[in-house]
Amino acid sequence: MGFDDFYRQTFPLMVATLRRRIHLDEATAEDVAQDTFATLLQKWELVRAAPNPTGYALVAARNRSIDLRRKFREVTLDLDAILEYMPVAEDALAGVEQSAVLEGLFVHLSPMQRQVFYLHFRFGLESREIADWLGITPSTASVHLHQARKRLRVHLGQR
Are the CB atoms for 115 and 145 separated by under 8 Å? Predict the structure, then answer.
């Protein structure tokens, strides 16, 4: 079997598997599958010689999706994006002061609290969606969001 035939047979299965087992949306599952097949094409002789080429491809896709989630977890908090939700500063100096205040506040949050807080307020994601992206349970996402809010209130003096 050639690569083109393998691709036509395996691609729909790979997308369905990523959606069902890894809980990716359709577009992301297709992107991960395409990236995986680009790598598989480079290693086609190795893949074709494997005892189960389809299994090899599915494991490669699963690993690629795990890498994608890890990269997403490592994204640092974008303070400029958070500033979009703050009142507009009257001048440049006030904008710098706002940025410094935010930066000072976020040092009081754990990395996971920062991530959950950012995903919730920047993108409007709910706990279940945040949990899917970060690979945690929805209740853990809710707890991190609650703790982040609580810590920020304390450091803003609004106990």
Answer: no
